[in-house]
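Hi R.,

As promised, here are both runs. First protein below:
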Amino acid sequence: MRREFIVIGSRILTQYLAVFKSFRNVVVHHIPHQYSEEMAQPSTDHPLGLIFKNENKTTDLSEVLQEIQHKYAPKGPDGVSKILVGGDRLTEANCRNIQCAFADGNTNEERLEGMVFKFEDWHAIRVLFEIHYKVFFSGKSGKDHGKLCANMTKLSCDNAQKETHLLQSSSFVMCFNNNCTTFHYRVTPCKSGL
């Protein structure tokens, strides 16, 4: 865990302190893991344009999914490749239900198997904070220095301890970043401004 905090700390320092900004290009921005090589590959984005249908109506959404399947899901010798299709949680659930309704089709394309549905936007950020909270937060660790609960108490972010609210959690992260920067100024003889 010490190595991960070094990576996070170096990111924060090169972002906020002028004396370290020259190192922004050489600092590690992503903590290395077993999938680092695959994740470093560039993604391909394809703007789909507008489809004038109402995603809240089942018939319209099924027509949209069929259009996406036929036009945008790559087809090759091995069959249909999968693409990610995102939306809010309700849209994701509706898309999965429609995909289940088409499960009796004769081909992968008719079964709409070329799409993997996912939720996006602020939902992902909120879920990230929820996972972070579930994994790292324990009310019993309030006196253990360096633990999430102790850090929240030390930084007067007690409201982030009660439940995982996006606003309080993101406020805590910003406060944590600011305190890492302040700590650096107190520990090093650096006289440069921000």
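And here is the second one, sequence first, then its structure tokens:
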Amino acid sequence: MVSDIQEIVKAGGRIIRILDGIVYEENFKTPPYRDYILILRDLRNKYKREGNIVGSNCMKLLGNSLYGKSIQKDIFTTRHLWNEATLQANFDSRVKTYEKINDTQYIVETEIEEKEITTEDSKSTRLTPSHLGSFVLSHSKKIMNNFIHVINGFYKPEIYYTDTDSLYISSKNWKKLNRAGLVSEKDKGKNDYGDGGIIFGLYLAPKVKYNIVLTSDGVLKEKKTFKGYSNDKISVEDYVQLASGHDVSNEFNKPWEKSFTNGVVIPNDKQTKVFRSYLNNVKRKPPNNDKDEYSFHENYEFDDFDYLTIQEENEDCFK
């Protein structure tokens, strides 16, 4: 994307080589989704003013879905609501995931059986240009970068944590954003906590964070995210332990199994998920500091699985 290249250079980067890309030579004569987005935006603001939280959230969900559909991959799975007997009778290699929602029922995701494509299937083909989502994402990055430039976030440690459409910054930077005309309660950036704010935060890895929020009413609330971990199992002690350089572990049910001899087997024992602390520690250390402590070669690249392992019940979790 040309805009991606422009943003990299604007932030002080240097383009060495371009391997592949898409040239956006001409805009759409009619902006896709524009009318729908404006309707949903106006409705959401209306519901907000009326204090209708459900209506406001529904409009937000519909707006996000328009974008989500534009980058959606082809779907090769289907979902079912099955009881345990039906799940056992149909449990085979096509079952990808299953989630127990109450004592008797499961939401089951299965692979769709391959079949020959005919002309009758053409009516279900998605006609959205596959590259449209890339342009939308590129533009959203450009908007986000406007906020980062104003607080000099590319050159100074002004940002505690960031996600696709959010920045966790100090309240002192709010005035800078306000002077730049980037914040408001309607169409631009806003404080999700209103007149309140975060008084304590731990930002340990992507999608792993813990906040204590002081609301405008003087009430303390806990906001936590831990990808790969159930919210009902994670506690503040786990975040502190991980931040202190210690591994965090918990027990989860083992997945079902199927064999020719025993059929469907529902294990009674547990498996242990271990979230390892070294990913967080290494990322917060200066470059090449104590590198030998972690058995990594100099070209080692981290990925999302570097802080998560799954071990059997009888294994030592902290080797």
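A quick note on the second one: The first helix runs from residue 2 to 10. Let me know what you think.

Best,
J.
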